Amino acid sequence: MNEEFCSNCRQNLKPKRIDGHYILHEIEHVLHFDRGILYTIRELLIRPGENIRNFISENRSRLVKPVIFIIVTSLIYTLINHFFHIEQSYIKIDGAGDSKLNAINNWVQSHYGYSNIIMGAFIAFWLKIFFRKYDYNFFEILILLCFILGMEMLMFSVFAIVEGFTKYHLMQIAAAIVFVYFSWSVGQFFDKGKVASYFKALVSYVLGMLTFGISIMILGALMNLISH
């Protein structure tokens, strides 16, 4: 077969060797301002709720895939957190000497991407309750949270870098900004014209984080019972 491309799938019959140019092209593709992660970050900073609603209901090609987005941004935060040894972690459950609970907490600290998705499920549960009159199912709300929690990871990353260089404790400020961003994004997603939307978003966030933490503590207690 002498053709350069397959007649069926149009893919190279013999792909070119991977070299520096290939790597640069892939990085450029990921960071592309028109459809890549930088474009997604910009859109989620300007009109988060509206862009995510558009992604779910109309056009899913403008933003990067939500699960990939939250995993990549969580990885960025994990690397920065480990590099600068930031004490105030994004998610932290105090084990108070409980080895099982500490083991779970260490897993959470080492797998922020998966932990955020799990925590997102708890927040999605409360959002589904508070915004039950809106026609969004649980999984669509989870997609909403993948984008928002991914942006939170980037915000914490920025503050972690500044704290790492300046030694000023800034993570509490970052947490406050994240709470505001979450309420603004979710409120804009459901109904930006109603003040109640922003309040219900904030309450859902707090309840979701609380139930996530309580679930970890219960899981730790069950593991202790089983081990004994």
Q: Give a short account of the largest sheet.
A: none
Shape: globular
As for the number of domains, it is: 1
Low-confidence runs: none
User: Number of helix segments?
Assistant: 9
Q: Would you tell me the structural class of the helices and strands?
A: mainly alpha
> What is the H/E order?
HHHHHHHHH
Beta-strand fraction estimate = under 5%
- Span of the ends, CA to CA: 66 Å
Report the helical percentage. over 70%
Number of strands: 0
Average pLDDT: 83
Radius of gyration: 21 Å
Task: Outline the structure in words.
The chain has 228 residues and is mainly α. The protein has one domain (32-227). It has helices spanning 20-30, 37-46, 48-57, 66-84, 99-110, 112-130, 138-166, 171-191, 195-227. α3 (48-57) packs antiparallel against α7, α3 packs across α8 (171-191) and α6 crosses α7. The model has no long low-confidence stretch (mean pLDDT 83). Keywords: Membrane, Transmembrane, Transmembrane helix. The chain crosses the membrane at residues 63-80, 112-131, 138-162, 168-190, 202-226. Pfam families: DUF3667. This is DUF3667 domain-containing protein. InterPro entries: DUF3667 (IPR022134).
